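Researcher: Next entry in the queue.
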Amino acid sequence: MIKKIIILSMILLSLVGITVLNTGNTSAVSLLSSICSNSSAKQHASTCQDSGKVSQNSNPIIGEIKIAINILSFIIGIVSIVIIIISGLRIVLGGSDPQTISSARDAIIYAMVGIVVVVVSQALVVFVLDKIK
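Model: Structure for this entry, 133 residues:
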């Protein structure tokens, strides 16, 4: 039973790690482009007037900090997933040695806590940097 739980948690964490650690660029789709293309709507609607304004980082250091945070988060996420996989294997192959199983279980818990800390800290840093603009 414990083996199934560990395997399921490893699969779940791998999927979460893949989605969380995706540092690729994403682009937004302008839902207002068809509405704001009409000249009368463009003149009267404040949403259409503001939709053309794209906020750019006035400070290039903020962009560099975001890139560094993404890279560090990616590295920490990969290391955490590797630790979880190795610890899962230690549990499965540990046999009946309770000390090995206990240390492997602790390593999995620490790695999962590390992933949560990285995700929360990255969200906070990005939030603060977006407010600094």
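Model: The chain has one domain: 2-23+57-132.
Researcher: Noted, moving on.
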